[in-house]
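Minutes, project check-in
Item: structure for the 122-residue chain
Input as provided by the requester:
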Amino acid sequence: MYQKKIANTLNCGSVLTKEVLHGKWKSTLLSCIAQGIQRPSAMQRMIPSATRRVLNVQLAELEQHGLVQKTIFPELPPKVEYSLTSLGQSLLPVIEVMEQWGNAHRAELEQALAVSLAELPD
């Protein structure tokens, strides 16, 4: 796993929140699980642009941070399901507000992101 060279100072609530949500798909994964999508294969179908490996890494990090709980069923082939912990449930209103803000400012943000992506060197 990637190790940061400079440690974050976790003395600020927003830094802590960003640290546990850091990852392109973490908030989406939490939303999926909250909607009842518990199996990794179903999450992969909901987020086709994410690789299975990335989703597995981010689910493992969410589990490590105590936001989700992984249940492995003793059968062949193995069946795995994820569920939100109470800590993960408490983060859902934050994710909802982030989604509302993004939707409210969609036009401005898409334009700004398109410009910044066009400026990247090839």
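Outcome recorded: The CA atoms of residues 98 and 104 lie 10 Å apart.
No further action items on this chain.
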